[in-house]
Write a structure and sequence with these properties.
The chain is mainly alpha-helical and 258 residues long. Helix content is 45%, strand content 5%. The protein has a three-stranded antiparallel sheet. Helix 1 runs antiparallel to helix 2, helix 3 packs antiparallel against helix 4 and helix 3 crosses helix 6. The two termini are 31 Å apart. Keywords: DNA recombination. InterPro entries: DNA_brk_join_enz, Integrase-like_cat_sf, Integrase_catalytic, Phage_Integrase-like_Recomb.
């Protein structure tokens, strides 16, 4: 339906362009920069993806962990790193841009999640310096509590324990930083090894969508899911003062759900 909205607008504009030419006007409105930006905005909000992006569930998280543990070609330290990144992305409802570097060899110090941005106490305290819904870079803090289960972001990060505080939090043993492309590649490879069908429909976004899906299935209230995911829709929900004890119960609740 969303894709049809964008196509209908394009058809409407094409008719305007045609009428514009027939009436003798010389201005090429099709190349107007303002119009082009409006169309890009509409396309962004009403995109029509070629194939669906499937969510990562807790069942899949367990399969990923088992496949990662037995993977013969991944260095043991990289296994710890990938598992920490995956669990952080899931339980933190993170966008891929919030925990990866833009390049395997370079990073934006002001926007990339660094080792110093993740504080390990009894919980994980993650400072997101830049985000899609935080254009002025005021920063957002995400609290992830232990789950008391085998799928736990706190335990995974403690086992990984990044060496450098002033570098991206997630880095391979060969010195390359974890990128969006690397997340998708390793995720699909592990799902394939776990004999999960339709692996091409899983992307780096699957952790965030999976967390939201699992939270909804676990009957967490809508307002809490929106707060956890920092969604701009119904943005007023972000201003609700959420008690810390409620936030700390979320990882354990998600981990118990299939």
């Amino acid at each position: 339906m969303e894709g049809l909205v964008y196509k209908s607008i394009k058809v409407y504009l094409a008719a305007i362009v045609s009428l514009n030419a027939e009436t003798g006007h010389t201005e090429d409105i099709a190349s107007n920069n303002m119009l082009r930006h409006v169309l890009q905005g509409i396309k962004h909000d009403h995109g029509n993806p070629i194939r669906p992006r499937l969510p990562i569930t807790m069942t899949l998280m367990r399969k990923i962990k088992n496949a990662l543990r037995s993977h013969p070609a991944i260095h043991v330290n990289d296994k710890l790193m990938l598992w920490s990144a995956f669990t952080l992305a899931f339980f933190g409802f993170l966008r891929v841009s919030e925990f990866t570097a833009t390049s395997a060899s370079t990073f934006d110090n002001d926007g990339t999640l660094l080792g110093s941005d993740v504080l390990l106490t009894d919980d994980l305290i993650v400072t997101i310096k830049a985000s899609k819904t935080d254009p002025f870079r005021r920063g957002q803090v995400v609290t992830i509590a232990p789950t008391q289960s085998s799928i736990c972001a706190v335990r995974a990060f403690r086992n990984y324990n990044p060496a450098a505080l002033n570098a991206p939090a997630f880095c391979f043993t060969n010195g390359k930083f974890l990128t969006r492309q690397a997340v998708t590649y390793h995720l699909r490879d592990l799902l394939l090894r776990a004999e999960v069908p339709n692996v091409s429909n899983y992307t780096s976004h699957s952790f965030r969508s999976g967390a939201a899906t699992t939270a909804a299935e676990a009957n967490l209230p809508d307002w809490l899911i929106k707060v956890l995911g920092r969604w701009r829709s119904d943005a007023y929900q972000l201003y609700i003062t959420t008690p810390t004890d409620i936030i700390r119960k979320v990882p354990a609740t998600l981990a118990q759900h299939r």
